[in-house]
């Protein structure tokens, strides 16, 4: 509502400004140049504004890179992540180069060939050679990018049986995630929303023999260096499972199972100790310390100090608490993973209670 009001006020202000400029023109009297046709002075002014706009664009671009590049994600923590990053880097590199050159040409030509009295534009109908050049270069570049992207995509999405991945179900609902480990048989029991009842929160079929050893958890633990196949289900609306640090994302659609596999290759501990993360965490904690002092001065509790963890986020705006829909991910050694998993209760044990 507030946004709507602000838009209306801005629109009204624009109309007011426009009307005032008309009144201003009328009040200048008969002596002033009131012709609607642009003269040399107008043209020069417009050409200079165009050049100034180009400078503004380049400065804005340089500032954005300098100021926001620290917000980039850390290095990819999965095996395929580097492929995605390279694809992204090459695409952005090409786009940036073309953009910088064409902006300069566009603005410079507007300036150089500004309107002048007595100057006439050359009539130039077409040139087959030029048309050919500016068609074939984008065709080759785009085809190259698309084919490269397709190969990367199929490389990441094709899961071979030989990899023998660990199977984990990721279950989404407004507004939380749950994970279901397939247990000793590495086969998930049947599940459906119709089976949801009481503590059976993800709807596992109690009568399915594969289901009894499944383990339902509120944290995702993954062993480093092992391929994990995630099977996604949603209870209610469209969600999107987003693993930013692992460069993975998959829509979670009610009524169907979607999947994505990746191999985590940096443990939580290693990521915490990386230069990038040590630096980032200390910056966050400095800010928290300052804010805590302000809070304590008001007699409120101070903030906890921050420690890095991987997390799974929802990347579809799925409702009012969407922003809060996240699950902690721990990447650890195989021994730690096995120790953690053996402590988790099986589905059969949960249902006995
Ligand atoms: Cu969601």
From TrEMBL:
GO terms for biological process: ATP synthesis coupled electron transport. Residues 163-343 form the Cytochrome oxidase subunit II copper A binding domain. The chain crosses the membrane at residues 47-66, 87-111, 131-151. InterPro entries: CcO_II, CcO_II-like_C, Cupredoxin, Cyt_c_oxidase_su2_TM_dom, Cyt_c_oxidase_su2_TM_sf. It is found in: Membrane. It is a multi-pass membrane protein. Its EC number is 7.1.1.9. Its main location: membrane. It holds the Pfam family COX2_TM. The keyword ATP-binding does not apply. Gene3D superfamilies: 1.10.287.90, Cupredoxins - blue copper proteins. Keywords: Electron transport, Membrane, Respiratory chain, Translocase, Transmembrane, Transmembrane helix, Transport. Belongs to the cytochrome c oxidase subunit 2 family. This is cytochrome-c oxidase. It comes from Salegentibacter echinorum.
């Amino acid at each position: 509502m507030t946004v709507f009001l602000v838009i209306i006020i801005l629109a009204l202000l624009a109309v007011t400004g426009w009307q005032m400029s008309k009144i201003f023109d009328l009040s200048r009297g008969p002596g002033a140049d009131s012709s609607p046709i642009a003269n040399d002075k107008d043209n020069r002014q417009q050409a200079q504004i165009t050049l100034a706009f180009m400078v503004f664009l380049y400065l804005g671009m340089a500032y954005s890179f300098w100021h926001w590049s620290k917000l980039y994600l850390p290095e990819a923590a999965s095996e395929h992540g580097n492929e995605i990053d390279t694809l992204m880097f090459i695409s952005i590199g090409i786009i940036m180069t073309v953009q910088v050159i064409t902006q300069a040409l566009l603005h410079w030509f507007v300036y150089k060939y500004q309107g002048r009295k007595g100057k006439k534009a050359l009539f130039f109908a077409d040139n087959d050679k030029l048309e050919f050049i500016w068609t074939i270069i984008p065709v080759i570049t785009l085809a190259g990018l698309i084919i490269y992207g397709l190969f990367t995509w199929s490389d990441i999405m094709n899961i071979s049986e030989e990899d023998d991945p660990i199977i984990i179900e990721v279950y989404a609902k407004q507004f939380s995630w749950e994970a279901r480990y397939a247990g000793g048989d590495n086969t998930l029991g049947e599940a459906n929303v119709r089976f949801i009842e009481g503590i059976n929160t993800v709807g596992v079929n109690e009568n399915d023999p594969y289901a009894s050893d499944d383990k339902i958890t509120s944290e995702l633990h993954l062993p480093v260096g092992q391929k994990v196949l995630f099977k996604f289900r949603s209870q209610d609306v469209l969600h999107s499972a987003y693993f930013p640090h692992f460069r993975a994302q998959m829509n979670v659609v009610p009524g169907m199972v979607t999947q994505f596999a990746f191999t985590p290759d940096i443990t939580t501990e290693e990521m915490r100790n990386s230069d990038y993360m040590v630096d980032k965490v200390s910056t966050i904690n400095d800010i928290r310390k300052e804010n805590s002092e302000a809070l304590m001065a008001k007699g409120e509790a101070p903030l906890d100090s921050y420690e890095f963890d991987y997390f799974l986020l929802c990347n579809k705006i799925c409702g009012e608490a969407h922003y809060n829909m996240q699950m902690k991910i721990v990447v650890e050694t195989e021994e730690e993973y096995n120790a953690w998993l053996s402590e988790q209760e099986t589905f059969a044990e949960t249902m006995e209670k």
